[in-house]
Amino acid sequence: MAMMQKMMGQMGNQQEGEAGNPMQNMMGMCMGMHAEMLTAVHKTASMAAFATPELHMLFGEWMESLEREALTAMADKDQMDVATLAAALKISEESAIHLVAHLASKGKAVLSIRAPGNSEH
Asked: pTM for the whole thing?
């Protein structure tokens, strides 16, 4: 979705006299985004190549510890938002979302979602 929005934004940024061939413009944008994706994949693969079995084990142990901390933080609460959990664990909200989704996939947590700004009823 973000890529589509980026493409549409780039198309909207063209000046009046630059209309050109819309297919060629779209192809150029697609090629640019493809290059960005390949760079990201290459970076991820490079980082993974340096991860030793010991680092994988340590990461797994850290995740298990973080899961226990999250479950403890949520234990006495009826509900908890991601920002509160992230602050309690001293991790980013993105990491907290990943952690909660992982816990939910293991049946250790139940997710509840709502549109931002909607009151809880």
From this structure: 0.56
